[in-house]
Amino acid sequence: MKAVQKLHSRRLWLAVAGAVGTGLLAPTIALADPVHTPVTDEMLLNASRESSNWLMAGRDYAGTRYSPLAKINTRNVKRLVPAYSFSFGVQDAQNTTPIVVDGVMYVTSSHAKIFAIDAATGKQLWAFSHPLPENIGKLMCCDVGNRGAAVYGDKVYFATPDSHVIALDRATGAKVWDVVVGDYTKAQTMTVAPLVVKGKVVVGMSGAEYPTRLWIDALDSETGAQVWRRYTIPGPGEPGFDTWGDTDPEIWKYGGGSTWITGSYDPQLDTLYWSTGNPNPDWDGAGRKGDNLYTNSTLALNPDNGEIKFHYQYTPWDVWDFDGVNETILANINGRKVWLHGDRNGFLYNIDRTDGSFVWAKEISKVNWATGFTPEGRPIIDESKVPTYEHKAMNVCPASEGGKWWNPMSYHPVAKTVVVPSREICVDILAGKSDRVEGKYNLGIAEADWIKGHGQLVAFDATTGEKTWTVQAPSPFTSGVLTTGGGLVFAGTPEGEFKAFDIKTGEELWSFQTGSGIVGSPIAYTVDGTQYVAIPSGWGGWTGWATWGGKGGSPHLKDNRKGGTLFVFKLFDVK
Amino acid sequence: MKRLLSLALVLGITTAYAEELTNPLTPEPEHIAAGKKLYNSTGCIACHGNNARGAVGPDLTDDEWLRKPTDQMIFNTIRNGRSGTAMSGFAGDITDEQIWQIITWIKDENRKRKEPKK
Q1: Does CATH place domain B22-114 in 1.10.760.10?
Q2: Distance from the first to the final alpha carbon of chain A
Q3: What are chain A's domains?
Q4: Nearest to A400 by CA among A373, A432, A365, A371
């Protein structure tokens, strides 16, 4: 019944009759005016069952990026053709995941823009642009991108590179509130897609390539007022403060710990899971001997006050920029409540989400910085792979981008399969001493030479952690991944190819050239019963791995073509 | 006479404005070395990569440029940034002379790249 009501309320056609008298020659104007049904807590809690919609970046609170839609499937995907394309009007990293609510798409782009469009036709309903300060580019390590919006009630929320969080009226695009949560001049910047939990807009920060102390904020969805802030690096007297060594008393103020990937939420456990990034300086660990809590970890948080319930740390004392900020996907596997996390350090993790205990970790790509794990899940380090000022660590696998880079993986809960965008690229690293100045890079690197490798898409049986298939490609898969009820896996490449694979075998079934490299994430949704698949295209972000040092990891991607276009597909239908 | 004087003045100013900026530094090893050091310490390396072969930003050592890579164009881009892109201006961070040192190093990298491989 609800579905029927929504179908009728989704579009309210207002007929404005200009005709009078006979009306024979008078124009009649019909305006499509979508009704913006408020997004409720109930809708967000049941987002996985809102089959026509895509209500948050990870699609549901578990962050599966799985759509149950099956009209487009392994048998007919070859008939997939463009329904429309939509230009953002700007280039650089198009890292976004679009949101769809009842036939309206909210999609962000690089350079702090957001658009509302008719999800069936691509017609722009409104556009909002936040003017950025002129010097923002040098205060962001990895391009002026954005990873998506969030919706709740009658508002849509997004974060900007200069650390504004902005709420807009979903119907008109008018600004409702605009709060500043960080100081961009100190490289406290934002690219995150917010997550709305229990009426709070939760956001994270970028900036750990600079001397920063970063955090997660929860804001009141009605006003933007801060409800709580959780710094990811403990201050004096807090648990974990003693994990930063004793050589640098100020290090806790500048140790990084970014939070730029959207977290997950388990309503039964009432726990928010949010991952954290690398310590600063990235590759120089000399001044921060210790585990460097809570960097490279997933924090289990009380969503009401931001208190840490427990944590799991993927890479203690990270000196490789492994940056554990990647997403957690919540799954119930073999009767156990767990999270799955593909890390840049090369491992796919299965962690018990009731207490943070280690279940297993499996290699996504070749790993040699660690030789295994203790029973408690602590990695056992190969000291020859630790870069110092004197020792150039050779052929460290994987390089800083993984394994699995930040681009989100997807979990198919029916097939119990997790599909990971990946790469096989290694690196030689010599650490270096760099100066600590706020607003200036502090990488701690003297030399880095990425070694030419290749890309891969890897499927795992989530019940065992065994690989079921691997698709090799010349370049890393740099998009997020979508899995569907139609048995499909969608993913994109730096060459601009948007591809569909069979989730059972990895067989490539369909491909479309989008014209620019893909670093955004695909979604699926329906409007009036027609299924669509959307993908943002536009190369950018940190791409040093491709060409930096030596030959580079993927030298053929030198000066790869930029862009800024959303492509939307549906099945070709002969009428 | 007054009109002629005004015309001459206008032409003079126009000529002065039209004059292309050129690198006042010669490609001496000390300028090249200083340029490379500044390239790394200013943060150019983070976007344009090791030896300026490209990363987030484009390769600066090849002949593929959006605008002709004149000294003036490169100087203005480093100093003022390029609107609509991630390239910020560095006027407040480094001096004009330091910008010229970076340019001297970039040009030297370009020259070395064109040398026939032995």
Answers
A1: yes
A2: 30
A3: 36-571 (2.140.10.10)
A4: A365
- pLDDT the model gives residue A3: 36
Strand A271-275 with A297-301, pairing: antiparallel
* DSSP line for A476-499: ---S--EEETTSEEEEE-TTSEEE
**The model's pTM:** 0.91
Judge whether B81 is closer than 8 Å to chain A, CB to CB.
yes
| pLDDT tens digits, one per residue of A98-154 | 999 999 999 999 999 999 999 999 999 999 999 999 999 999 999 999 999 999 999
Residue of B nearest to A541 (CA): B56
Region for A105 from its dihedrals, namely left if φ exceeds 0, alpha if ψ lies in -120 to 50, beta otherwise = beta
Residues of A marked active site are found at: 321
Among candidates B43, B53, B59 on the partner chain, residue whose Cβ is nearest the Cβ of A138? B43
For chain B, the domains span 22-114
* pLDDT tens-digit readout, A443-458: 999 999 999 999 999 9
Diameter over CA atoms, chain A: 90
Alpha-carbon distance of B20 to B11, in angstroms, equals 16
* Neighbour tally for A304: CB within 10 Å: 14
Question: Kindly report the CA angle at A122 between A157 and A509, in degrees rounded to 5?
Answer: 100
Query: Is the pLDDT confidence value at A1 over 50?
Result: no
